């Protein structure tokens, strides 16, 4: 079974530029998540989709971050304009319901450096 | 709100030593609890989970028991190997969120020396 795919793996941009990340979840997984992992910290949820609808975007800085999941499969996360503090690894995950809990599978992440 | 606290790292052990990484949580209700592992240059991998009190999750020689009375989910392994060197994250599923949003601890880096 193919895992969660993300691209690009690395990205370096200057502040105030824009950037987009792409995620392809595991086939059949209805729920998709974007997490931000700042160096030395645990991942923090930015946005969660159930099929193509947003379930939770309470921690998404909506003045600069946006995300979409068209057709309930692939997703893109965009930052415009980027700030220095956006330097982090952006993780995409997808999940299925296993018993009474959701098991999340993570992609390799995109490491963003903002200079 | 819900939160997870892990012991600070880095933890450095010799091969075949006993490992304990402490994890405590604060949550309303009874969330599912998870340990994820992140090897250098790789994404997060689910190591083990427990979904209710007194459950023991286990995988690859690692174990953790869901302790409701102490709100803990400590990770243990009887004999670590160099290949276990990684960052370990404790996490809980937020029950207020439909679809199992995870709340993570800050991670504990483990380094195993030969």
The strand count of chain A comes to: 11
* Strand percentage of chain A: over 45%
Annotation field: number of helices of chain B: 0
Q: Regarding quaternary structure, how should these chains be classified? A: heterodimer
The general outline of chain B is: globular
Helix content of chain A: under 10%
Biggest sheet character of chain A:
7 strands, mixed
- What does the radius of gyration of chain B come to? 14 Å
**Beta strand count of chain B:** 12
pLDDT < 50 runs, ≥5 residues of chain A: none
Radius of gyration of chain A: 14 Å
**Share of helix of chain B, binned:** under 10%
Order of helices and strands of chain B: EEEEEEEEEEEE
Unreliable residue runs of chain B: none
Structural class of chain B: mainly beta
Distance between the termini of chain A: 37 Å
Mean pLDDT of chain B: 93
* Biggest beta sheet attributes of chain B: 6 strands, mixed
What is the straight-line distance between the termini of chain B? 41 Å
Structural class of chain A: mainly beta
What descriptive keywords fit this protein?
heterodimer, A: 115 residues, mainly beta, 7-stranded mixed β-sheet, 4-stranded antiparallel β-sheet, 0% helix, globular, B: 114 residues, 6-stranded mixed β-sheet
Walk me through this protein's architecture.
The complex is a heterodimer of chains A (about 120) and B (about 110). Chain A has no helices and 11 strands. By secondary structure, chain A is mainly beta. In chain A, the strands form 2 sheets. In chain A, strands 2, 4, 5, 6, 9, 10 and 11 form a 7-stranded mixed sheet that branches. In chain A, strands 1-3-8-7 form a 4-stranded antiparallel sheet, with no helix packed on it. Chain A starts with a strand and ends with a strand. The mean pLDDT of chain A is about 95. With about 110 residues, chain B is mainly beta. The radius of gyration of chain B is 14 Å and the shape is globular. Chain B starts with a strand and ends with a strand. At the A-B interface, strand 4, strand 5, strand 9 and strand 10 of A face strand 6, strand 10 and strand 11 of B.
């Amino acid at each position: 079974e193919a895992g969660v795919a993300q691209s690009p793996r690395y990205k370096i941009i200057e502040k105030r530029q824009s950037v987009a990340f792409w995620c392809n979840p595991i086939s059949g997984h209805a729920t998709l998540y974007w997490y931000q992992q700042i160096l030395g910290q645990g991942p923090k949820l930015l946005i969660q989709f159930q099929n193509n609808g947003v379930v939770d975007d309470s921690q998404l800085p909506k003045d600069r971050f946006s995300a979409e999941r068209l057709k309930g499969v692939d997703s893109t996360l965009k930052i415009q304009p980027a700030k220095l503090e956006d330097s982090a690894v952006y993780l995409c995950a997808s999940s299925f319901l296993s018993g009474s809990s959701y098991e999340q599978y993570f992609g390799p992440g995109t490491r963003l450096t903002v200079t | 709100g819900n939160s997870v606290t892990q012991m600070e790292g880095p933890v450095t052990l010799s091969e075949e030593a006993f490992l304990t990484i402490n994890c405590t949580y604060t949550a309303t209700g009874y969330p599912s609890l998870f340990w994820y592992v992140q090897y250098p240059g790789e994404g997060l991998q689910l190591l083990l989970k427990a979904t209710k009190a007194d459950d023991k999750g286990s995988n690859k020689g690692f174990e953790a028991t869901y302790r409701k009375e102490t709100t803990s989910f400590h990770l243990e392994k009887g004999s670590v190997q160099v290949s276990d060197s990684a960052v370990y994250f404790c996490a809980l599923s937020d029950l207020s969120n439909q679809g199992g949003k995870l709340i993570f601890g800050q991670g504990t880096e483990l380094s195993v020396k030969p």
